[in-house]
Amino acid sequence: MQTLYLGSYTRRESQGIYTLDWNFEAGTLDNLNLIIKEGNPTYLGLTDNNTLVTVTARDNMGGVASYRKDDNGEFKEINHVLLEGAAPCYVGIDNHRQLVYGANYHKGEVTVYHIDETGQLTLTDTVQHEGNGPHANQASAHAHYADLTPDNRLVVCDLGTDEVYTYDVSSKGKLTEVARLNVAPGTGPRHIVFHPEGKVAYILGELANTLTVVNYDETTGTFSEITTLSTLPSDFDGESAGGAIRISEDGSFVYVSNRGHNSVAVYQTQEEGHRVEKIQTIASEGDFPRDFTLSPDNNWILVAHQNSDNITLFKRDAENGRLTLKETDILAPECVCTYFA
Q1: Would you state the pLDDT for residue 63?
Q2: Cα dihedral sign, 72-76-337-163
């Protein structure tokens, strides 16, 4: 049995962070349990010593919070670091340097926090992005992702400026920009995943509904574009936006969720990840598939829907990467983040 953590909005029914029990042998998810009451914990992560870090919103302030299990197995608050304005939309964990990274969509900021052995968070740096793009949702900078490259730099996707930043990170939690990639105007880079070889990455363009394949140069931290593909069928002309992107453990398949078209697109990688080909688009069987995850054994994909409050379960064929629908009605209120312990 393994634990699936669920981050959520708390606008309707949800009260915070939930867990589900994942039976990987049977392929079942059950026992929905509210573990932390928190305001809009839309993204979360766990450190190596099992400190849970989540974004949070309280009293017109936003920031990050940390929790740890007590002797009774209940999560207890360690501390909150809150600032005026909106909360971040992403947190990344850096266990090697004992740091946490935040990306703030509304502020266009990247934040860095030190996390000590007790789980206490302390703000160490803030970097403000500037700029805009041609899309209506690009009036200003919108940092949407901040996490580690394979060589332990920080990579940040800014949806508002159509840029992907690379930062060096000091042991004290200070950022220094070393490179910046400009993608096509109106792309809206949301998230990025890396091929296991570490030399190729895949950028999800939320606004343009695209998958952009890029080279990554570890010597300089620079990205360079190889090709861009649509995440949507060619005959679709409705409104949609990219949701999440994941890659299989062996690097052979990339998966993308489409919010609006309500589907998952499957791509096969070739030539050590440098070339991708779409091989399947399957209905997600829910409304607004904002996040999804592969099971730890990579045999299943679990797709969470923000608007229809359900998780859909797909069996994954490890040989050809294709998905087969197994279950559609697993309750997950306002779920926007899925995270395996």
Answers
A1: 97
A2: negative
Could you give the CA distance from residue 36 to residue 45 in angstroms, rounded to a whole number?
Answer: 14
Q: Which residues contact 303 (CB under 8 A, 6 or more apart)?
A: 257, 264, 284, 285, 286, 289, 291, 292, 311, 312, 313, 314
Contact status, residue 65 vs residue 19, Cβ threshold 8 Å: no
Query: Residues with Cβ < 8 Å from 104, sequence gap 6 or more?
Result: 62, 86, 87, 88, 89, 110, 111, 143
Q: What average pLDDT score do residues 74-94 get?
A: 96
Kindly state the average pLDDT of the residues 88-105. 98
Other residues' Cβ atoms within 10 Å of the Cβ of residue 192: 22
Cα-to-chain-centroid distance, residue 229: 20
Alpha helices, DSSP H, located in 75-166: none
> Taking the model in full, what pTM does it have?
0.97
Provide CB contacts within 8 A for 235, sequence distance 6+: none
Q: pLDDT band at residue 94, thresholds of 50, 70 and 90?
A: very high
What pLDDT is stored for residue 239 in this prediction?
96
Residue type, 294: L
Q: How confident is the model at residue 25 (pLDDT cuts 50, 70, 90)?
A: confident
Residues 6+ apart with CB under 8 A from 107: 85, 86, 128, 143
The one-letter code for the residue type at 32 is: L
Mean pLDDT throughout 244-259?
98
CA distance 279 to 265: 8
Average pLDDT, the chain: 97
Q: Which two tokens stand for residue 179?
A: 């490179």
Q: Is 90 exceeded by the pLDDT of residue 341?
A: no
CA distance 235 to 11: 34
**Coil, helix or strand at residue 238:** coil
What sign for the dihedral angle of Cα 181, 186, 191, 193?
Answer: negative
Residue 274: the pLDDT is: 97
